[in-house]
Structure formats: structure tokens, C-alpha cells
Design a protein that fits this description.
The chain is mainly α and 161 residues long. The chain has helices at 2-43, 52-73, 81-84, 89-124, 137-140, 142-160. The two termini are 21 Å apart.
């Protein structure tokens, strides 16, 4: 019974992570379209879209943090492969456990401090420094959300090791 429940939870988690990866990829398409529109407006119509670059920066941050769990699940995260590939399977497994432990500590810390920063931005009514004065808290909220989701993915991946 427990095994079946865990299997269902893992399957639902994998669907969520895949969906977040799809959303992150679609955001990159939106960034490309918005950047193209901004450049065309600037150089062809001599009327740039003032807020476009800032929105693209925010969308990129959101995309990165939404796709963190997918990159971990697919083992596409950053590591020093020149050393890692030379190790035996046994040593790679040990290294994976150690790296997962340290990554979990880092991500938990990032979740906490990201939450504090987003909370501070809400309390202060923080906006961007540009003329468009876009509120920063919706974007900053994706830092602890993405880091928390990555914590869960690290635990799921380590559980499967």
C-alpha cells in the first residue's frame, strides 16, 4: 500500500516538474518574441517599448527558477565533469550523495533568505528602479518557490539513489 502511494506521489511530482520545465521553456519563447518586438519597434518604428527589457529580465529569472527541479532530475546541473567522469561508479554514487547533501543545505538556505527578501519587498512596496516602477515581489517570490521545489527534487532524487 505504501509502495503504491509513493509511486503515485513520485509520478505526480514528475508531471509537475515536467510541466514547470515546459512553462520555463515557453517563457524563453515569450522573451525571444518580446525582445524581437522591442528591437523592431526601436529600429524600424523609432519607438522602443520602455518596459520590454525589464520584463524580459524578470521572465528569465522566473524561467530559471521554475526549471531548476527539471535540471536536477535530468542530471543536467553544473558539475566538474572532468573529474566526475574519471571516477568509478561507486565513487560517483558517493559523490552524488555528498553533493546532494550540500545542495540541499544551499537550497534550503536560499529558500529561507529568498522568502525573507520577497516578504520584505511586499512589506516595503518595493518597485523596480526604472520608469515603469514594476513591483518586485511577484518576481522575487519565484526565488524561494524555485529553491523549495529544487529541495524537494533533491530529496526525491536522493531517495531513488
Amino acid at each position: 500500500m505504501v509502495k503504491k502511494t509513493l509511486s503515485t506521489v513520485f509520478r505526480l511530482w514528475n508531471r509537475l516538474v515536467s510541466s514547470l520545465g515546459l512553462v520555463g521553456g515557453l517563457l524563453i519563447v515569450v522573451i525571444a518574441a518580446l525582445s524581437t518586438w522591442n528591437m523592431a519597434s526601436r529600429y524600424i518604428m523609432n519607438s522602443p517599448v520602455v518596459w520590454a527589457d525589464e520584463i524580459c529580465e524578470y521572465l528569465l529569472l522566473i524561467s530559471v527558477f521554475l526549471t531548476l527541479p527539471l535540471s536536477w532530475r535530468e542530471d543536467q546541473h553544473v558539475r566538474v565533469d572532468i573529474l566526475y567522469r574519471r571516477w568509478s561508479k561507486k565513487w560517483r554514487s558517493r559523490a552524488n550523495l555528498l553533493f546532494s547533501f550540500w545542495a540541499l543545505i544551499f537550497c534550503a538556505t536560499l529558500t529561507w533568505y529568498g522568502f525573507l527578501q520577497a516578504r520584505y519587498a511586499v512589506i516595503q512596496g518595493e518597485t523596480s528602479v526604472s520608469a515603469s516602477a514594476i513591483p518586485t515581489y511577484p518576481v522575487l517570490a519565484f526565488i524561494p518557490i524555485g529553491a523549495f521545489l529544487l529541495c524537494i527534487q533533491i530529496i526525491v532524487s536522493t531517495w531513488r539513489l
